[in-house]
């Protein structure tokens, strides 16, 4: 048992390697507990935290080798720089970026109750428009107001003056019914109960209700609360009869595909339940692999833009940095308005898993993810930016923990590549807000990742080890969401699914938890699943790095992905292998080999003194390094080809 923040006795040199209070095994599989208070903090073990000394901090790859055996069994760890290491964040304040819109309520259940309500409401409005057209043709509409020709789902409500979010029509309908007093509705009260506090919200909700829900409410009052569910069953039965008739007529009129204009492969020709046009399953984007269920309606891409698509995050709005900060602050304040104070991390964590797990509300969260630092700028000083050269930024410009330099360090395979790869040799920037999620995944090509928190609210991470730990994690995920994985065996590659760590632990997975604060690194290890979310507005930056055993690791990867359609991904891996075979084996598991012209201190490249992190004379070009490769590629090339043929 370790009770001192000084760290573990018998450490591998230096002071304070692993801090925090830890206890032993609990329940047989819970590992280390951190000294924390919230439900998840009490139940989910804490990931290890390492405190490199100033001397250890001089050589990142050497330090990673030093802690690897101890840290990798947990999948993720925190690395806290020595006191005084405080790089400036030089991100462009005037940047504009496109966000990814995450449906938080669909991270575990793709069809929660509010989504089903929305889908049935769409059917109701389609039927209303269809019946109105029939009455028009018969001249029996009697001055009836025409239904809206094309309603957008979900409708928008304001969060700030410039930006809004999707309205939850199911919650709005229930709130109005609850707060209707003699036919009068307090829209201010409805808005407050829906956690919408912008001055425009009451009027917006009143207009949305009139346009989307008033006619439906009339039908519910007349036919009962189960009207919409019964109505859908009626429509399905009606359409099945119409389809059978249309299929008979199609044999005569030769129904063709709307996209390819061919009538062949009629067994894969679907008929839209709205416009009655034909669409081949293989003409959809992406192609549909399964027939839609017989007891559900199906709509073509012209009638439903999401038709045939697997679940994924949508493209969100464009934001400036200041707009995004304002929006993020408003969303956080809205969710915890009733507290009357700032929420704790534990309270935010509880709310996150309630939203994503129970899915009682529709919640849409924009996230500035995977932003190319060549376009939006890096938070670290960048050697490629002349404005950062010399002067006050010089120390951090040349520091090896600067993520712009990290991929080029001696001992990294990436230092031999001649082109830029986003997220690998070029860092990605992340601008998050409360509940912005980075869903469970492993790094491409079984690489490490190093993630730095520049500023803002903490991030909460969850991770599990590679190897058997990853296998147990995958089994737990499949057990927690069997329908999702039955429908999509490659779901782990989509980064769209989150399950509570407590749920996963109850299903046999070993999960650890970390809270990353500004100025801290989080490192993930090869094959280790990890995910998490932000607790408020923040900025992070990350790169991925391979180890020298990239060959054997990627053979495993190729075999593991053979059962699913990942030809493009496997081609990327094959390219990595071909490039790595002729390089000196100087990765994480072997000491860096001294090279001519590089000044060494204690056997590590680049670091002549603590104040001068980087020797300009030692920065050899990638092409110069490539000229030192001597290994033959014939043997490994044949192994790669054989792996490809096995697919």
Relevant terms:
647 residues; alpha+beta; nine-stranded mixed β-sheet; four-stranded antiparallel β-sheet; 33% helix; 14% strand; globular; disordered N terminus; disordered C terminus
Structural account:
- This protein has 647 residues and is an alpha+beta fold.
- Helices cover 33% and strands 14% of the residues.
- The protein contains 18 helices and 19 strands.
- Mean pLDDT is 74; it is low at 1-37, 305-311, 549-574 and 580-647.
DSSP E strands, number: 19
Note the total helix count. 18
Shape: globular
Mean pLDDT: 74
Q: What is the alpha-carbon Rg in Å?
A: 28 Å
The strand order across the widest sheet is: 1-2-17-14-19-12-11-3-10
Poorly predicted sequence stretches spanning 5 or more consecutive residues? 1-37, 305-311, 549-574, 580-647
The main β sheet shows up as: 9 strands, mixed
- Portion of residues within helices: 25-40%
Distance from N terminus to C terminus (CA atoms, Å) equals 48 Å
Strand percentage: 5-15%
Q: Which structural class matches the secondary elements?
A: alpha+beta
Topology:
Layout: H1 39-43, E1 49-50, H2 60-71, E2 76-79, E3 96-103, H3 113-138, E4 156-158, E5 164-166, H4 169-179, E6 180-181, E7 184-185, H5 187-193, H6 201-223, H7 227-253, E8 269-271, E9 278-280, E10 314-320, H8 321-335, H9 345-358, E11 364-372, H10 373-376, H11 394-397, E12 428-432, E13 437-441, E14 448-456, E15 459-463, H12 468-480, H13 482-487, H14 501-506, E16 512-516, E17 521-524, E18 530-534, E19 538-545, H15 550-560, H16 567-580, H17 622-626, H18 634-646
Parallel strand pairs: 1-2
Antiparallel strand pairs: 2-17, 3-10, 3-11, 4-5, 6-7, 8-9, 11-12, 12-19, 13-18, 14-17, 14-19, 15-16, 15-18
